[in-house]
Amino acid sequence: MAKTLFIFNTQLLIFLILCPFSPTSISAEDDDHFVRPIDRKLLGLKKEKLSHFRFYWHDVVSGRQPTSVLVVQPQGNSTTAFGMLHIHDNPLTLGPKMSSKLVGKAQGFYISASQSEIGLLMGQNFAFLEGKYNGSNLTVLGRNPVFNKVREMPVVGGSGLFRFARGYVEARTQWFSSKSKDAIVEYNVYVFHY
Ligand SMILES: *[C@@H]1O[C@H](CO)[C@@H](O)[C@H](O)[C@H]1NC(C)=O
Ligand SMILES: *[C@@H]1O[C@H](CO)[C@@H](O)[C@H](O)[C@H]1NC(C)=O
Ligand SMILES: *[C@@H]1O[C@H](CO)[C@@H](O)[C@H](O)[C@H]1NC(C)=O
Questions:
Q1: What is the CATH number of the domain that holds 180?
Q2: Which domain holds residue 118?
Q3: Which numbered ligand comes closest to the C-alpha of 133?
Q4: What 3-state DSSP class applies to 43?
Q5: pLDDT in tens, 45-58
Q6: Residue 3 maps to a domain
Q7: How far is the CA of 129 from the centre of ligand 2 (A)?
């Protein structure tokens, strides 16, 4: 037992000497802070600004290439589709027409989460493709009672140029086909970001 321990310790010692990432190479300063304030310039952050983006969201549920699919059917005989889950990868275009310039994709889900009206819980990432925002994403999570004229949902964060983003979106249905269930929704996004 004592011999095994000795061999183990010797191996550990050799490992510590040879390993460039041994604890001795970590400075005491790095070792003893859990949290500390830092200058925002160290993260390349300059002045916070407020921007307004506008684009159109296309929910294509019909046809041979839907961008939005029903994953879980509503439960029981609910009149509000309670329990339904949809997942989408919807185009975001500059103008209301699908043929208009593609500026991003909205990737996320909507769940019917109300038993008293058609009220969705929506979570989506806007993955932008346009200009300097190409490659940056915004995350929106909120309540969407789809038959209201204007629905407001919070911007809860983002990545890339949208690090530290916060704000809100206003969603307004532009067009809805009760036959195909396809929809076009105007999104106005008001967001603080760096
Ligand atoms: C719908 O479900 C409720 C509760 O389960 C039940 O009482 C009712 O009879 C059902 N209605 C129909 C039309 O199936
Ligand atoms: C966006 O970035 C990707 C990857 O860097 C690039 O392939 C693509 O062409 C860019 N799109 C636009 C519209 O600039
Ligand atoms: C934004 O989302 C796209 C698509 O999912 C991903 O490729 C990209 O890495 C994300 N950008 C950042 C900065 O995380």
A1: 2.40.480.10
A2: 48-193
A3: 2
A4: helix
A5: 999 999 999 999 99
A6: no
A7: 6
